[in-house]
Amino acid sequence: MAEAWISWVPDVGFPILVTFYLLHRIENKLEQLNNSIKSIPQT
To answer: Membrane-spanning regions, if any (predicted)?
Structure first.
């Protein structure tokens, strides 16, 4: 049973890592976009 889980780690772990990295980057960009949209009425 443990061998089955160990064999899945390289197959599943890398895509999960890439997904979390991309979501983190997109979150930062969306926050910047949201802040700039909120500042439009002030200008």
So the answer is: 6-23
